# Entry
Amino acid sequence: MGLGACSGAPTAAPESEAPAAVDVQAPAAPSAFSAFDAACPKIEAALGNGGHLLVGETGGVECAETARMTLLGPGGADILVSETYGQAALRVIFGEASGTDVAGLDGAQAAQARLAEWMGSALRGSISDLPDWPEGATEPEPREFPFLPDEGLSAEDYRRLRAANAPMACWVQGGESARCVAIDPASGAAVELGVQTFPG
# Structure
């Protein structure tokens, strides 16, 4: 049978299908902490019992041009304090003045040995080693090699942290001084205490 004309309203052309939705995932947020120099040594150590980590790293040619010390919050999610040091400071931290015997070691091995000494010295002390800050005084008790508190640190907080024996790290930063940071046991926050001087 031949095809005849269809009666009735004309059939509408089918609508084109919308393209299928593509599931595009947003890029993962970058980690708060990333490696300083993946080719160079890194050492992690616990600071206190609350999950805080102190991370020391080296970088540059033969892993001896720069260094970084970072304090991470519990789980390593948050950077609480991070300090990077260049070649001038490295004379004390990793240079001949560090006292670390690296004879016969290649660049990375020497950096590892010096980094281990830097980290070890940072965690060797206790906040009770810092001088007392007497009531009514404007600064801690003077010593031959004084402790210089940060401007934002109050005497009350200093005494409270010492009384609580707060976890503390003091790492050599060059210039005959060490940067001291404590963990407040009450809040878990990092408190930048100040600078401890020492003989050159």
